[in-house]
Design goal:
It contains 13 helices and 12 strands. It is an alpha/beta fold. The protein has a 6-stranded parallel beta sheet, sandwiched between helices. Helix 1 crosses helix 2, helix 7 packs parallel to helix 8 and helix 11 packs across helix 12. The longest helix is centred in the middle third of the chain and has 16 residues. The model has no long low-confidence stretch (mean pLDDT about 90).
């Protein structure tokens, strides 16, 4: 308050008048406001933004909670970096800062989020990697803090979420492989407990059934986001009385290990085993033959999440027509040479 007090003495007005003028209070007449602003500029006054935000009950910032684990942070293609870029572009245009809130795997995610909510540290929050039952969503709803989730959940009821179209990806992949003559189609699923794995798994089951194909749990593999998991998958797929002829990968980086093991066995991707990856990752761009995969704009995903949040925040909501947004972002198939017609037995 020493800066405001100095301005008040210089102008011969109260500190309350100076404070109202600096904060754009309409009850201050224009002549007084002009004098306050001119004097503030002449004396080099800089407002204490933290104190101003506290007084206004806003922080002008949005939190983005993510979970960190060694698999993702050591990757050369960290998914959320592209998403953050899209979020920041939209939020900055509305005078909001984006604060990334990283929670390491050793921490309890509920307690971590509860701490930020109770402190009033942000004006809104984007929550990534939802679970099917997610207490964090219930916490956010009960707090009244505007929020959006990157991912669906059975928790929270009618809240805003943005997710990838996992169902559309699986429908396209299975249909393509069936059209190539494949009947034994395997899949890899993430080993973590994020809800996207369950969605991907259900879409796999549904699309096998849609094409009249029997579900074989022996063709469902749980993998980490590591290339080494691909080595053992090949043996598990092919060393069976009824080997699989195709596989759909959740983590495309698994293709590196699969390619390596196929080469060790004298086999070729796209001929002896068809492979379709979920998302085109930087780490497999130079694999030959080129991996058939799906592509999307991470920037657009981040933009969609930011806009869905702005639609709920009091200061920006009037500019948006819909308050609750529930949207699946589509992905486009990028054909490569890693899949093709199934080899005919006999």
């Amino acid at each position: 308050m020493r800066g405001i007090a100095r301005l008040a003495r210089e102008l011969g007005v109260s500190t309350a008048t100076v404070s109202r003028a600096l904060n754009g209070n309409p009850n201050v007449n224009e002549e007084t406001r002009r004098k306050v602003l001119e004097t503030a500029q002449r004396l080099g006054y800089a407002a204490n933004q933290a104190a101003r935000s506290l007084a206004q009950g806003v922080t002008h910032s949005v939190g983005f909670m993510i979970e960190l684990d060694p698999e993702s942070t050591t990757s050369t293609d960290y998914f959320f970096m592209g998403v953050v870029e899209g979020m920041q572009a939209i939020l900055a245009a509305h005078g909001l800062d984006l604060l990334v809130l990283p929670c390491v795997k050793s921490q309890d995610t509920f307690t971590f989020l509860q701490r930020f909510v109770s402190r009033g540290a942000v004006d809104g929050l984007i929550l990534a990697e939802t679970r099917r039952i997610d207490r964090r969503i219930d916490l956010l709803q009960s707090s009244g803090l505007p929020f959006v989730t990157l991912g669906r959940s059975d928790s929270g009821g009618n809240h805003s979420w943005i997710d990838l179209d996992f169902e559309g990806v699986m429908a396209t992949a299975v249909e393509r492989l069936v059209r190539f003559g494949h009947r034994r189609i395997a899949v890899t699923l993430p080993s973590n407990d994020a809800n996207y794995g369950a969605i991907f798994a259900q879409a796999y089951r549904d699309n096998l059934a849609r094409h009249g194909l029997e579900l074989d749990e022996g063709l469902v593999f749980s993998t980490r986001r590591q290339e080494d998991d691909g080595d053992s998958i090949v043996d598990g797929l092919l060393d069976r009385p009824d080997p699989a002829t195709a596989i759909i990968l959740f983590y495309e980086v698994t293709a590196i290990g699969i390619y390596r093991r196929l080469a060790e066995r004298g086999l070729k991707p796209g001929r002896d085993l068809s492979i379709i990856g979920f998302r085109g990752e930087e780490s497999v761009r130079f694999l030959m033959p080129q991996v058939t995969c799906f592509q999307m704009s991470l920037h657009d995903l981040g933009t969609a999440a930011a806009c869905a949040l702005l639609a709920q925040m009091p200061s920006t909501a009037p500019a948006f027509s819909s308050k609750v947004v529930q949207s699946r972002v589509p992905l486009s198939l990028m054909p490569g040479e890693s899949d093709g017609p199934a080899l005919q037995s006999g």
